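Title: Request for sanity check on Disulfide bond formation protein B prediction

Description:
We are preparing a figure and want to confirm that the structure record we downloaded matches what your pipeline produces today. Could someone re-run it with the sequence below and paste the raw structure tokens into this thread? We only need the token string, no images.
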Amino acid sequence: MTGSVGSTAAGEKPDGAEVPAEATTSGSWLALFAAWLIALGSTLGALFVGEVMGQVPCNLCWHQRAFMFPLAVILAIAAFRGDTSIWRYAFPIAVIGGLIAGFHGLIYLGVMPEAIEPCGQGPSCASADMTVLSGLPLPLLSFAAFALIATFLLLSRRPYRP
């Protein structure tokens, strides 16, 4: 490809590698797009709960945000470029965020002993303020979001073959 820096022809990656036409309409792209929608919804939801509803995030919520917010950005870029290879970089972020959310969920459910709870200062992880939409706990919603994102990223690894 010849042309200016930053411009690419349709079906071509910036490094010159061809992107198969079916990659942008296949199940792998749709899985990547679904992962982005979940990350975007989770990010906007976290911002709404914190900024509009006024719930102060606990320490573990901040850690989960540190893993969710970048996913919304990098998955958006990858989805709109048709770059399904992003799963290699986004999957570990989703897994680590999911582990933190799973740990947070265990604290919320009371499974973790009091001695190892990291939320001693600030808002309580077990309070009723940690629920939305008729009692859905935020830590478990976060875990579900990370798990779905990781699942969709695994599905996006290869082009869909009917």
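Thanks, this matches our download. The helical segments are 27-52, 59-81, 87-108, 138-155.
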